[in-house]
Amino acid sequence: MAKSAIADAGIRLCINGSEHLLQIEPRVTLLDALREYAHLFGTKKGCDQGQCGACTVHVDGRRVLACLTLASQVEGLAITTIEGLAVNGSLHAVQEAFIRHDAFQCGYCTSGQIMSAVACINEGRTGSDTSIREYMSGNLCRCGAYPHIVAAVRDAAQAMDLGEGRGR
Amino acid sequence: MSTTSSESLKSNGAFLGRRIARADGVAKVTGRADYALEHDLADIVHAVIVESIVPSGRIGKIDLAAAQTIPGVLRILTHADALPLKSCPMVPAGSVMESFLPLQDDRIRYNGQPIALVVADSFDHAIEAAGGVRVDYQAEPAVADIDDPTARPIDVPGAPSSGMGRGDAKGALAAAAVRMEATYTTPREYSCPMEPLGTIAAWGTDGDLTVWMPSQWAEGARRAFSEWFAIPMEKVRVISPFVGGGFGVKVTAHADALLAAMAAREMRRPVKLALSRPQNFTGNGLRPAIRQNLTLGASEDGKLQVIIHENTSETSVDDDYVEGGAATARVMYAVPNLSSSQKLVRVNSFTPSWKRAPGEAIGAYALESAMDELAYKLKLDPIELRLRNYASQDPESAKPWSTRRLREAYDAGARAFGWERRSPEPRSMRDGHELIGWGMAGGAFPNVHTPGEARVTIAADGSVDVASSGADIGGGTYTILAQTAADALGVPFEQVRVRLGDTSLPRAPVAGVSQIANLLTGAVDKTARAAREELLTLASSHAGSPFKAKRANDFTIKDGKIAPTDGSAEAVMISEFMRMVGRDRIEVTRNTMPADKASSESEQRDAYDSFKYMGPSSATHATYAWCAQFVEVRVDEDYGTVRVRRMVGAFDCGRLYNPKLAESQWKGGMIMGMGEALLEAIHIDRRYARITNNNLAEYVVPVNADVPDIEVISVGEPDFHASALGGKTVGEIGVVGAAAAIANAVFHATGKRVRDLPITMEKLM
Ligand code: FES
Ligand code: FES
């Protein structure tokens, strides 16, 4: 595939439906690409080592850790970050449920929790509280909002089911 | 007793006391809350710290040649050429917790100490170059930890070696019919907020310094920069509107903040310095390892005669950080004789620091474990033993309690938990191969007060702006201050905007010791009432006012409308009224300094940038928050694995400004206590005095799957000795007693008393 000199030096990322041409080296992680180059700070860096979940984003609808993903690996794929979750200013059911259940305090883990929660619901892992706890355990919360996160995910899963009219 | 009982408490307004969702909720769930490292500045460059890999000695030659060849490297600072700094006085007179200043000499005090700083055009270039810095060390012997064979306990410099106390502890112990003595040890722990430390610093051409950093105390950080760089306070602005968790570690500015500012000055460009997660573990703010020796003496019928508390804790080579654990023992029970003493062990570490409920968390772990042991010895129910020793006044000061609904907490907690169904014998409850354990413990947290300042502005459109430099570290300051102002002014909650965490705003002291909610609601209430007064003075006297009433207190303001109380005229929207009287704003600033000091600028500074004005919230009464916690654990008999099955906490925190948010903090504290009981410990490689588990996979904190259902109950009632609006401390009490309740439950399950936290499986095998 022929590439122009400019495209050669950069990486094209599709973030929340918009194209971003970023001049970055191949070693730059998706997390740094989002924060330092695309200036989308909603995705958080809690460890940069794949240990906390704060950097969770969706790539083609699946949850991935942006700190363990190179930006160059996801060129051309659909990247969704917390900034892309609300549609036309109306919050996603999971975002609403997080507010309603006070599923955060400091808010630093929250972007990752919410991105994980949306995926967890889509993966069909919200059948029981035990299952929610298990499949939300990749996202640390030092403020200890876990019980409220479980309640929010349970609640949002039901709302999404109703909204989409599908049973489980 | 329901979890929402505080809602029915008499409150003086419509919004305080209600379960209102967080004012900053939308910002946080959409990723728009701007944390410190999330600012774009033109020309910004990145700095990365190079750390010492030996714990003690001198820096020999530093070879920068390889590092300097990395593309994008702009500068590498070492002690040879770094800017000389002045020291900042430490708390309580100043605002830092460690005397160490980075890159000032060739001396190495701890493994992980910053010894060079690489500045480059990108984060990746800076990291690569940092890895290329070659250092020759002249290593010297180090003391790795409290158990190091070369560690020597010393008296606390400046403190009496005999300790403190009341009555005749020795005599009472000799006379006591029943004695219980045990040593409880707790490891180094890290509070580990999810947002790592990091700083953006920028100097203006006029010598002004602007710093974005996560801070529990922006005024304190401002003072530190002013002292370090010998520039006036007015030249420093610290911005910290959102803090991604603090828990003590973000109370004071640390080396990262200082180095970012130093590099920015050197480079004449904005510098971003993000500590890596491992650097967060090895650079600042661990709770020290602590050994507590507790001796209880009691009569046959379980009346405590004496408590002797001997504490030894780690500190650094340079500083005397004391984490004592006796504070809880002093106030928890009606015991006439008590002595407490403190020793320090100097280790090659950075200066330890606060972790949520410093002193109280570990102190309650030891005391409430010892009480449990005594209860078994006396064959008494643990609650009964506590009730037999119930303190009806402060045994330390002999002052009356302001409020102490601890009896109600024991009751409500026990009832919710089903405590009466407990079979007292250890190992007597089981479910298949799982041993079931039920344990309980109590806790106390002091109520302190420091003055604060606030500004309330009513704008032409009737909206209200509340401003303070105080922090919201997740406790809910944004929300409860909006509730406070809405109530005091009579406007809808949604009409109030709160701005926080910026030293260009009116000043506030530290968001620590759980004091910020109480002191800032007091300051905002006072200020908003003054603004209301000004508005109503216009209503009663201004020529443009549509009203005939002539006294300010002839009016009411409700739902943002002003009306004469007697109904003689139609209500008018504040915005409309402002237009009628030709005002585009009403702006009022007030502080809650003692009246004789309120006008002194230097006294005010002391109040906000040191601990000078921090003190008990009442002169006449002893004011504490109280709790009783109940836990069920399941222990696998074969493997020794402990799972917490349920937790119940009953809390007396006075009036709750917002029960929804208070409950979140209580639960969060209990979960952190679970981590302390079962999971968390810093491990040290004694050969190099190096922290080996410097990451979130190996420093194990509770995850979602560890945490069961938690029920929290409020038994408090308004306490106006504790604070202006009747609240007591909320933020830290949740962690106090949690570890003891779990440890006691583990004993009940297994019959094995583990006195060394965390209780990991190998200790139960
Ligand atoms: S920042 Fe990616 S998992 Fe922690
Ligand atoms: S809300 Fe603070 S870390 Fe989860």
TrEMBL record, chain A:
Gene3D superfamilies, per the entry: 3.10.20.30, [2Fe-2S]-binding domain (1.10.150.120)
Q: Which domain of life is it from?
A: Bacteria
Q: What PROSITE patterns is this protein classified in?
A: 2FE2S_FER_1, 2FE2S_FER_2
Q: Mind listing the UniProt keywords for this protein, alphabetically?
A: 2Fe-2S, Iron, Iron-sulfur, Metal-binding, Oxidoreductase
Q: List, for all copies, the residue spans of the domain called 2Fe-2S ferredoxin-type.
A: 9-85
Q: Name one GO molecular function term.
A: metal ion binding
Say if the entry is tagged with keyword Iron: yes
The record's annotation in InterPro entries points to:
2Fe-2S-bd, 2Fe-2S-bd_dom_sf, 2Fe-2S_ferredoxin-like_sf, 2Fe-2S_ferredoxin-type, 2Fe2S_fd_BS, Aldehyde_Oxdr_Iron-Sulfur, Beta-grasp_dom_sf
Its protein name is Xanthine dehydrogenase YagT iron-sulfur-binding subunit
TrEMBL record, chain B:
Keywords from the named record: Molybdenum, Oxidoreductase
The answer to keyword ATP-binding applying to this record is no
Cite the GO molecular-function annotations of the record: iron ion binding; oxidoreductase activity
Locate the region Disordered: 147-167
Output the SUPFAM superfamilies linked to this UniProt entry: CO dehydrogenase molybdoprotein N-domain-like (SSF54665), Molybdenum cofactor-binding domain (SSF56003)
Return the Pfam families for the record.
Ald_Xan_dh_C, MoCoBD_1, MoCoBD_2
Q: Domain Aldehyde oxidase/xanthine dehydrogenase a/b hammerhead, which positions? A: 30-141
Q: What is this protein called?
A: Xanthine dehydrogenase molybdenum binding subunit apoprotein
